[in-house]
Design brief:
With 335 residues, the protein is mainly alpha-helical. Helix content is 55%, strand content 8%. The strands form 2 sheets. A 3-stranded parallel β-sheet has the order 1-2-3. It starts with a strand and ends in a 6-residue tail after the last helix. The structure holds tryptophan.
Length: 335
């Protein structure tokens, strides 16, 4: 690929929520329309197994996330959109990389260290309940990225260390076996907002404060009405700073709308009214895609077909590349 390649993965362990939409999905779909860039987006279902042992959750989430990206208008002629497990070369590469990765590097991974720390605090054995999947998952992630020789990897701050590890692993492989891999870079966009959830903390499944993306209209309204505010009465001036409602509104608003809402806060808009406006804004943005989502989700065969098409296009790149890599390490025909 001569174009610049941008790649990112979405772990299939949950139902998409407004935070995913604002922080990842929407910017990614917009970015995929830029000329001169090859974007690769994939459903990281092998990653899902690291934290989830509920087959139905993994399966359902794969369907929902695929339907979400398609409903929101991802152009799959332009972007490569595939399911990780449909690309067997990724797992093959994982092993080649595992064999050059220093164990000490994995010992330093935040996710693993946090698990160990938690065990020690509870007086457990350091590695209690730590699966090898958790321990070595940065290698799987490196394989996801290096398989496509991606240059830029848009991720959240929490993933930056994994990108550093991917570079480190790529460098070691290149050092032993020749220059096969591009060294990828993390792209952290601080301008995309981290959306607060209903309780004001970061919107996250683990805090149980999410607003699911595809709630039917009435439920969406109810869910927005549950965003925490304070006890200020209508007519009393309200602060935008620290207001989860204002932050959520802002993530969907034009700069003009945001300014107007700021003034409305200063003028003492009633919380109920501000929430109603927030609901209308979000609902207007999503209602078209929601209909498309509902249609897609009721026809999994069509989604499956689109994913398999994506995988087949992706494998036009990965199949020859893995042959090159196998050959580089000495695994090749004897004749
Ligand atoms: N681990 C990432 C996350 O939890 C998801 C992911 C898997 C990913 N493979 C990737 C992101 C490759 C970027 C590139 O968010």
């Amino acid at each position: 690929m001569s174009k610049r390649t941008v790649l990112t993965g979405i772990t299939t362990t949950g139902t998409p929520h407004l935070g995913n939409y604002v922080g990842a999905i929407k910017p990614a779909i917009l970015a995929s329309r830029v000329e001169g860039v090859q974007s690769c987006y994939f459903l990281a279902d092998y990653h899902a197994l690291i934290k989830c042992r509920e087959p139905e959750v993994v399966h359902r989430s794969t369907l929902e996330i695929a339907a979400t990206w398609l409903a929101l208008g991802l152009d799959t002629d332009k972007a490569l959109f595939y399911r990780q497990s449909d690309i067997p070369e990724i797992l093959e590469l994982t092993w080649l990389l595992t064999c050059v990765t220093a164990k000490g590097l994995m010992n330093r991974a935040h996710a693993y260290k946090a698990a160990v720390q938690e065990n020690l605090e509870k007086g457990e054995d350091a590695d209690y309940a730590v699966a090898m999947g958790l321990f070595s998952y940065p290698i799987l992630m490196a394989a996801d990225i290096l398989m496509f020789n991606a240059h830029d990897v848009p991720v959240g701050r929490d993933q930056v260390q994994h990108l550093e590890m991917a570079r480190d692993i790529a460098q070691r492989f290149n050092h032993f076996f020749g220059e096969h891999f591009v060294l990828p870079e993390a792209v952290v966009d601080d301008s995309v907002s981290v959306l607060p959830g209903q309780d004001g903390r970061k919107m996250s499944k683990s805090y149980n404060n999410t607003i699911p993306l595809w709630l039917p209209e009435k439920k969406l309204r109810k869910s927005i009405m549950r965003i925490v505010t304070n006890s200020l009465e209508p007519g009393e001036p309200k602060q935008t700073e620290g207001s989860a409602l204002f932050a959520i509104y802002s993530a969907f608003a034009s700069s003009e709308q945001r300014q107007d809402m700021k003034e409305a806060f200063a003028d003492g808009i009633a919380w109920g009214e501000a929430k109603q406006q927030c609901f209308e804004l979000i609902n207007d943005e999503l209602s078209g895609a929601r209909a498309a989502y509902e249609e897609l989700i009721s026809d999994p065969a069509r989604i499956e077909e689109r994913l398999l098409e994506g995988a087949s296009r992706a494998r036009e790149l990965t199949a020859p590349f893995i042959q090159e890599l196998r050959s580089a390490v000495g695994i090749r025909s004897l004749t």
